[in-house]
Amino acid sequence: MESKPNILMQRYELGRLLGQGTFGKVYYGRSAITNQSVAIKMIDKDKIMRTGQVEQIRREISVMRLTRHPNIIQLFEVMANKSKIYFVMEYAKGGELFNKVAKGKLKEDVAHKYFKQLINAVDYCHSRGVFHRDIKPENILLDENGNLKVSDFGLSALVESKRQDGLLHTPCGTPAYVAPEVIKRKGYDGTKADIWSCGIVLFVLLAGYLPFHDPNLIEMYRKISKAELKCPNWFPPDVCKLLGMMLDPNPDTRIPISIIREHCWFKKEPNVKNKRPVVENNTVSSSGTVLPDQTDCCDGLAAEANGESVAPLSINAFDIISRSPGFDLSRFFDDSFRIKEARFSSRLPANVIISKLEDIAKQLRMKIKKKAAGLLKLEGLEEGRKGVLTIDAEIFEVTPCFHLVEVKKSNGDTLEYQKILKEDIRPALQDIVWVWQSDQQLQSQPSEQELQQTDDQQQQQSQS
Ligand code: ATP
Ligand code: MG
Questions:
Q1: Which domain holds residue 73?
Q2: Is 73's C-beta closer than 6 angstroms to any atom of ligand 1?
Q3: Among protein residues, the one whose CA lies closest to atom 7 of ligand 1
Q4: With 70 as the cut, is the pLDDT of residue 410 above it?
Q5: Are residues 178 and 122 part of one domain?
Q6: 106 lies in some domain
Q7: 11 and 121 belong to one structural domain
Q8: In 208-349, which residue ranges form alpha helices assigned H by DSSP?
Q9: CATH code of the domain in which 221 resides
Q10: Residue 145 sits in the same domain as residue 197
């Protein structure tokens, strides 16, 4: 007799147990709407409550909702009921990478490919202020194409609480991948701690065993703290040098990711016979960064703009419809496109809108780079991680006293742009905006409402 499928929140059909961690279980799931396979991590709310780190979890989850990287398990959504929080994530069909290592050490080229993917993933999150702090075999998964996927990024607050609880010392949390400064419970830098763990991963991939290991936990701690590295004779000399710098017990002198990327072994090309495209389903640049962050959607109307006139472009009814939320085609693309632009209508003349934008540029210490037909380019003065932040504001005339303005990032870092848009530009535009047409899109972004229940509950607890 077939049992009734277990449906979570009328959205996901629950399948088999994929594994169990400290905070809860991970199940296979399938979207009842799209049929897409997912992994659902269920965490008891009280376990998070006890950590008192809801704010940090919320912040990091918000960031993770915005991130897209081919080597990071994507967080699709976060749901909650009275007792549990559900993280709906991309499902990694290939399981844990280390199941491969369990069958024997990997060939240099294979290890090299995984190591590069790991460093790309870690670097990407670090650039967004998110540290992993728990890089270990259970969190390094493979997709069906054999590409590496790091999981649990964004849950580092949980890791922290695990450490405070001393759970690190239980069989749930092996310290084998943990940096010496973390074990010593000194204040530590999440970036450096992650680099250490990546070093341990590289060693294990190539050796098939741990660099610092002992059945006695105290002895293992001692070995980690001393970090006396012995590379087996089959390790290429360049790898030994790189590992020596990554497994430096002093976090201050430990090699940063920027230098790892420059290291000759990291940069080496794989042998042609093993060379396969790194990612099949995602667009990745040669440096491993995801393209949507760098590419600009070219707007045909903007391309028409030339000359020095600041007069807005006039648009027709079709343009208005296609720019209104209900007909927003960008919804059919991924989030990284959606979050790039914001639109509002204004019942003020163009010159008022332009002078407002100029004021804002001044306040933000940005210069107005270019004024073309209806287009203002606001350019930052300093170089960010992805170049100078440049924001385009394009004004379309519907009638002389009714305009549509589109604000979007044309260069620089998406997160930096979003922060400025939310915290500075939107509030500053308040008195000239009639209606924000992209409100709906902005609200659907990070998890502002997510974990709301968690917060409410916490508040109630602190009041009682
Ligand atoms: P911790 O509680 O310290 O985070 P953990 O990482 O082992 O420990 P979970 O993250 O809860 O615990 O994961 C449990 C197991 O579920 C993992 O060992 C992994 O094999 C499996 N798993 C987790 N996420 C996925 C996923 N997205 N796709 C496939 N399997 C997964
Ligand atoms: Mg995990």
A1: 7-90
A2: yes
A3: 21
A4: yes
A5: yes
A6: yes
A7: no
A8: 217-226, 237-246, 257-262, 264-267, 300-304, 317-323, 335-338
A9: 1.10.510.10
A10: yes
DSSP string, 197-244: HHHHHHHHHHHSS-SS--SSHHHHHHHHHHT-----TTS-HHHHHHHH
Please tell me the predicted confidence (pLDDT) of residue 50: 63
Residues with CB under 5 A from ligand 2 (ion): 138-139, 151-152
Is the pLDDT at 337 greater than 50? The verdict is no
Residue 49 pLDDT greater than 70, yes or no: no
Residue 185's SS3 state is coil
Locate 378 and state its tokens. 């606001």
Residue 265 lies in a domain: no
Residue predicted with more confidence, 189 or 158: 189
Q: Tell me, using a 6 A CB cutoff, whether residue 142 lines ligand 1.
A: no
Q: Tell whether ligand 1 has an atom less than 6 A from the beta carbon of residue 18.
A: yes
Instruction: Please indicate, yes or no, whether residues 153 and 18 belong to a single structural domain of this protein.
Output: no
What are the tokens at 120?
Answer: 């790309």
Q: What is the CATH number of the domain that holds 25?
A: 3.30.200.20
Q: Which one of the ligands is nearest to 41 CA? A: 1
Question: In angstroms, rounded to a whole number, what is the distance separating the alpha carbons of residues 445 and 464?
Answer: 33
Same domain, 214 and 308: no
Within-domain flag for 288? no
CA of 104 to the centre of ligand 2 (A): 23
Residue pair 10/60 in contact (Cβ under 8 Å)? The answer is no
**How far apart are alpha carbons 67 and 74 in whole angstroms?**
8
Cα(282)–Cα(326) distance, integer angstroms: 28
Kindly report the protein residue whose alpha carbon is nearest to atom 16 of ligand 1: 19
**In angstroms, what is the span from residue 141 Cα to ligand 1's centroid?**
9
Is residue 150 in contact with ligand 1, taking CB distance under 6 Å?
Answer: no
Same domain, residue pair 130 and 86: no
Band of residue 297 on the pLDDT scale cut at 50, 70, 90: very low
The domain tally of the chain equals 3
* Whole-number CA gyration radius for the chain: 25
Tell me which ligand sits closest to the C-alpha of residue 170: 1
Give percent above pLDDT 90 in the chain: 38
Cα dihedral: 415, 261, 230, 134 (round 10): 10
**List 44, 109, 134, 455, catalytic entry:** 134
Distance CA 191, CA 130 (A): 9
Residue 139 Cα to ligand 2 middle (Å): 4
Told to judge if 214 belongs to the known catalytic residues of this protein, a careful annotator would answer: no
20 lines ligand 1 (CB under 6 A): yes
Same domain, 35 and 107: no
Structural domain contains residue 11: yes
Q: What mean pLDDT is predicted for residues 221-228?
A: 92
347 φ, ψ (degrees, to nearest 5): -100, 25
- Please check if 41 is assigned to a binding site: yes
**242 shares a domain with 116:** yes
